[in-house]
């Protein structure tokens, strides 16, 4: 299927590694289901073609192992490239080939696993400690003390929920199962809920149109953007809802629909220029970053934005700081 169709009908287009789909029939006609596969096998795979014409070695392996669900097809190293392997998975009508790393020590995955364990362990330990305190001395605590402890539990539970939601979203993107059920939703209502438990956040709304999004996913994107600002930047933070283009600059025949942008601004140091192109990559963290994190937050934001037909972008803020912009189709 062409890449545009894959993005609409089969969410494997959003996966961060190569996935190739071919017909389960003689000839193995098909094409890569995402951009990562095109980078692995060459630009000739960008349009529907016989796998043998664009990747003959891989085609030979697929032909030989096409009935073996789960087979690992390893390609020999090429000049300037390491070895590449594809895991073959059968569906009712096609074969999916998932690229798997062969060379390297997996240090990125190990670091990501350690960071995720740290992110989960701290709130889990806090909740356990509070639960033990309430069990041991609950009746002797004042109402105010109990309210503070319960408030801490709620805060830590929100953090756990956010971390696990990002892990699940990343896994769904990798396995091609990420889907969104968009409805008309007012961004201001979601923003009000997200900022309710935060301090020093200003909200400006100059575009009152609804957007097409899944409410829970929109909340997840906004939670991630604000959490990112809180970790790496300085307050005050500003959330602005605006049209993608200023009305006075739009042509008279501009369609009514367009897109609505949600900007999340901070007044921190900004993102180092050398790291900006990696901001939205999976498990990506700037060198020397001290704040804890999994490296998934911004990757999840962009992945979900694209799954909704929108986009996520970064720009330096004039005068210092960052502006992260989420753009979604107006409803």
What does this structure look like?
This protein is of the alpha+beta class and 331 residues long. It folds into 3 domains: 3-101, PAS domain (Beta-Lactamase, 2-Layer Sandwich), CATH 3.30.450; 107-174, Helix Hairpins (Orthogonal Bundle); 183-329, Heat Shock Protein 90 (2-Layer Sandwich). It contains 9 helices and 13 strands. The strands form 3 sheets. Strands 3-2-1-6-5-4 form a 6-stranded antiparallel sheet. Strand 12 and strand 13 form a beta hairpin. The longest helix has 32 residues, at 143-174. Mean pLDDT is 81; it is low at 1-10 and 247-256.
Q: CATH class of the largest domain, anyone? A: Alpha Beta
Number of strands: 13
- If you consult CATH, what is the topology of the largest domain? Heat Shock Protein 90
Pick out the low-confidence regions: 1-10, 247-256
Strand order of the largest sheet: 3-2-1-6-5-4
Domain unit count: 3
Average pLDDT, rounded to a whole number, is 81
